[in-house]
Structures are given as structure tokens and as C-alpha cells.
Amino acid sequence: MTDPSTNHGNDLENAQSISVVQVPSLSQPIQVQSVIQSNQPSVIQTAGPNVQTIQVVRKRREILSRRPSYRKILNDLSSPVAVGKIDEESNSSQSQDGDSSDVATNLSSTGIQYQQVPVSVVPSGTIQISNDGTAGTQGLQTLTMTNANPSTTSATTGATIVQYAQGPDGQFYIPGTVQAYQIAASGTLPQGVVMHTTGSPMSSPQQLSEEAARKRELRLLKNRDAAKECRRKKKEYVKCLENRVAVLENQNKTLIEELKALKELYCQQEG
DNA sequence: AAAACATTGCGTCAGAGATT
DNA sequence: AATCTCTGACGCAATGTTTT
């Protein structure tokens, strides 16, 4: 399904088609295999025996407007035929529900296998792990944290995922760093869940790079979940539209029949 | 049965828009 | 202004379906 109101990625779409370009430093034209990046110096990888990487400055997209979120669109569909709205509160727990079968997740950037373990957060801020027995690999696991704290706000009923490894000291570690992190109760931190608590101030280049790696892992983790959530909402949105189409088609059919009957009645009275 | 093609879902990146 | 969220796009892998 495409939305004509957005030009998102138009130039990329064009660029993705295989094409031949002439590069001054090369005697032969080359076949463009893929273009990564759109409006900054882009990387073009060439096909053929002499694979090369070329920097190309691409023209900035002229019109860039993001379409409204599916949640917004659905909630705007307040007409009677709109079937169901996306519930914001239920969204936060979907990625766990929908992907519960996805117990072992391969993090492609690291090759590390993560495991999902049900966890409940208790008021003290500690966590309870009810390991389901499935063996974790490489000591790293993904927690699904459900806030079971009745004393905190009832709005924080969602579940949050955090990836961790538990050290012999009982502390929790996340990939890409040897720093210890305290797992905070969901609700005190939005989605982030992981809070840096120990260790000396970042000073050495190694620590800085570890910090950067940790931030990257965290960002990827969040984005992974966001993508799952987005796909789920998109599916729901499409289903909603399909339902809407079905309802409108029915209405249309009924109205046509009604019009036909009225016409016949009118003709009889005229005649 | 094997090959070719289609579909589906995932992780990642980029970037617009929202939030802090 | 910095950070976060959301979503289109891409490539990849797994799976399903059709064709040879």
C-alpha cells in the first residue's frame, strides 16, 4: 500500500534500479548494484569482478513529509464505520505478545543469541526472574519486564524488553560493555529501562567506545521493538481499512438497491 | 524433485516530527 | 537544541507456491 501524499524514498527507489554510470577515473562504465543513503554523500557499490565503492553526493529530496502515524490515522477515523481504534496502552505490550514465539533472537550485528525470560518488577526495584528453563546462549538474555508494582501508577502496565547478562556478583550487564547497570522498574524510565549506576566517569577512549557501543545496542534494541510495533500497527490499520471497505461496499449495495426500488415505485406511480 | 518466483517477517538505517 | 519516537525503505532469510 502506498500513500501518494508522501515522497518518502522516491530517489532511493529510483536509484535502486540497476543502472550504468561512468566514473571519470574508470575506463569502463560500471553497473550500480546498490545505493545506500539518499541525501548525503552516498555509497555506491559496484557489481562485477572489480567491486568498488564510490562516494556520490545525492540531491536532497525536495518534498519530504512524513505521513501521520497509524494510531493517529485510526483515531481520526471516528466515523461509525471505523472498526476499532489502536489502543495506545495496549501497544506497549504488543511486541512481547506478538512475538512470544520468537524466543531466541539473533542480534545480527553481534551474532549473539538473546533469550526472552518472563520477569516481574517488584516495588523495591529489584526484579524477579522466572526462568522458563530454555537454555540461554552466551550468557546474554532478553527480559520481558511486566510492571507488577501496584503502588506505582496504573498507567505503567506495559511490558519492556531489556537485554542483559547476569554476572557472578548478581549484577546485570548488557551487551557491549562491562559496566554494571541497574534495571529500573518500568515507569521510572520510558522504555530505556537500563540506567547507568556504577563505574568511574567515562574517561579513557576504551570506555568511551564501550559507552558508544552500549548506546548503539540500546538504540538498536529500541528501534527493533519500535519497528515491530510499527508493523503491528500497520497491519491493524490495513485490517481496519479492509473492514471499512467491506462495510462501505455493503452500504453502497444497499443504497443502490434502495434507489432501484424507489425508481420502480416512482415509475409505477407515473404510469 | 528441483528451480524459480512470491510472500512474509525481521533488523537496520535515515529522517521527519514530537517531546523534553 | 537535544533526544526520542515513528515509519518508509532496504536487504536478507525463511517459507510457501508455482512452474519446469
TrEMBL record:
Keywords, A to Z, come to:
Coiled coil, DNA-binding, Nucleus, Transcription, Transcription regulation
Localization (cell): Nucleus
Q: Name one Pfam family in it.
A: bZIP_1
List the residue ranges forming a coiled coil, or say none: 231-265
| Residue ranges, compositional bias (Low complexity) | 91-102
Checking CDD domains in the record gives: bZIP_CREB1
Superkingdom to which the source organism belongs: Eukaryota
KID domain residues are 37-96
Segment Disordered: which positions?
87-106
* InterPro entries assigned to the protein according to its UniProt record, in alphabetical order: bZIP, bZIP_sf, CREB1-like_pKID, Leuzip_CREB
Protein name, as recorded: Uncharacterized protein
